[in-house]
Amino acid sequence: MVKKRWITLMTGITVIALGGLFASEPSFECDWSKVNAADVAWLITATIFVLMMTPGLSFFYGGMVGAKNVISTMLQSFIAMGIISVLWVVIGFSLCFGDDIGGIIGSPLTFPMFEGVGADVYTTPTGHVLGGATIPLALFALFQMKFAIITPSLITGSFAERVRFSAYMFFMMFFFFAVYCPLAHMTWHPDGLFCRWGVVDFAGGIVVHASSGVAALAGAIFLGRRKSSTRNSEPANIPFVLLGAALLWLGWFGFNAGSSLHADGQAVKAFLNTNTASATAMMTWIFFDCLRGRKPSAMGAAVGCVVGLVAITPSAGYVTVGQSIFIAFLTTLVCNIAVYWRSHSRIDDALDVFPTHGTGGIVGTLLTGIFIQEGLISGSMEGVIVFLYHLLAIVIVFVYTFAVSWAGYYLIDRILPMRVSAYSERVGLDFSQHDEHYGLAQIGERELAEYEEHIKLKG
Q: DSSP secondary structure string, 123-170?
């Protein structure tokens, strides 16, 4: 029997496919007197790097979970490249960067089905050039698409090993429209509310990491704790974790340095600060663990370097290299303590998404409000105001994202249970959700027999 959820999803992609037949084709003929070839080449490269981060995240998360849930965990990240890419073209880019509506959201009528998104640049009704005057609008849209893809993927680590795959896909779409698009517009559109306040988020401290981390916290609380047998399982493949961290580190150069939108000095500064912060955080995490009586671990090194990347993201193109070291150092200490606190709480954030990405994005954004040239470090009253606006933005993002994400979990759960059955969790999501196996030996004969009997009873 075909489940209604799959009929709904198939109907949706069918409607989109038919609608694509009537979409107009923008011009891709470049006026090279206006377009800078170096900027175009660099941003194409950066866009490729950013997309590579999502498969990197798949390995990073996939290696951390138990062997019965590796494929499912990796697929939850990987599938975002399909779902979000299509939604972005249909209406997502328009909601994020379309003509401003109240400083909160873009007009869905500005770029529907990428209408007008070609080689030409676009000037907003208020006179701002969207994405810069030296690159085609389509390239800017593709670059921003990769940020939209990885953000919901980050959330999956919090409810790993217990979420129903189809319900997660519905939540991904809900989060994209209800959380990501408004925050991206408010922060990165020239007429957005946060942007008008002077809030600086160079590459996604608020839009990507704080939002995904807070949504992850809401998800971990809503879905509840894993069964003890799953919660206490050993990581399936620590080399996967190191591989994923390496791909994230490499891809983050496009994530941060590409956010300058030009092949210029700011891109080089962001590149330098990104690498330095990641290296600082990796060593800080290991040394701090050793001070607390632990042995230096590959897992700690991988998590530490990612925390440093998160910490520097909102300020990468603006602060000095010395400041990037301090930002990474302080944020890493806070995140390490947050991980320890979480591990002694009732909250089962399986892969510590909120203590690392959420906390790192929040602390990094607050430090951005301190260290940018016009921030608190300037010593002026204007600098105090800029910092307070950063603090206000964080409060708004936290409250809004948590409340809306919780509402999304609740509404979807009322229609389609978000959490798998106890049987499915026992045999693992690889087998129960996808009929595939990474570690078949981890599934005992008793569990398989129980699951098969459960399926028969369900019809």
A: E-TTSPEET-SSS-HHHHHHHHHHHHHHHHHHHTTTTTTTB-HHHHHH
- Output the pTM of the full model: 0.93
32-41 b/e (C-beta count within 10 Å ≥ 16 → b): eeebbeebbe
DSSP one-letter string for 247-267: HHHHHHHHHHHGGG-SSSHHH
Burial of 454 (0-12, 13-18, 19+ CB in 10 A): middle
Beta-carbon-side half-sphere exposure of residue 230 (alpha carbons within 13 Å): 25
| Confidence tier at 422 by pLDDT (50, 70, 90) | confident
234 Cβ contact list (under 8 Å, min separation 6): 66
CA 113 to chain centre: 23
Query: C-alpha angle with apex 277: 303 to 367, nearest 5 degrees?
Result: 100
Q: Which runs of consecutive H residues, i.e. helices, occur in 69-127?
A: 70-78, 80-87, 93-97
d(CA 175, CA 211): 10
pLDDT at residue 230 in the model: 74
Among 123, 124, 136, 114, residue whose Cα is nearest residue 26: 114
Phi-psi region of 320 (alpha: psi -120 to 50; beta: other; left: phi over 0): beta
The values of phi and psi at residue 225, to 5°, are -75, 150
Q: Is the pLDDT of residue 257 over 80?
A: yes
Rounded to the nearest integer, the mean pLDDT of the chain is: 91
SS3 content of the chain, % helix, strand, coil (to 5): 70, 0, 25
Number of alpha helices (DSSP H) and beta strands (DSSP E) in the chain? 21, 4
Contact 68, 430 (CB under 8 A): yes
Selection from 124, 121, 183, 123 nearest residue 148 by Cα: 183
Q: Is 378 exposed, middle or buried (0-12, 13-18, 19+ CB in 10 A)?
A: middle
Spell out a b/e string for 153-184, using b for 16 or more CB atoms within 10 Å of the CB, else e: bbbbbbbbbbbbebbbbbbbbbbbbbbbbbbb
List 105's β-bridge partners, or say none: 101
Q: How far apart are CA 430 and CA 73, in angstroms?
A: 8
Residue 362 has pLDDT above 70, yes or no: yes
Q: Which helix (H) or strand (E) element contains residue 317?
A: none
The 3-state DSSP class for residue 230 equals helix
CA distances 35 to 30, 39, 268, 438, Å, are: 7, 8, 20, 48
**Host H or E run for residue 43:** helix 37-62
Query: Phi-psi region for residue 101, left (φ > 0), alpha (ψ -120 to 50) or beta?
Result: beta
CB 450 within 8 A of CB 89: no
Structure tokens at 32: 């090279």
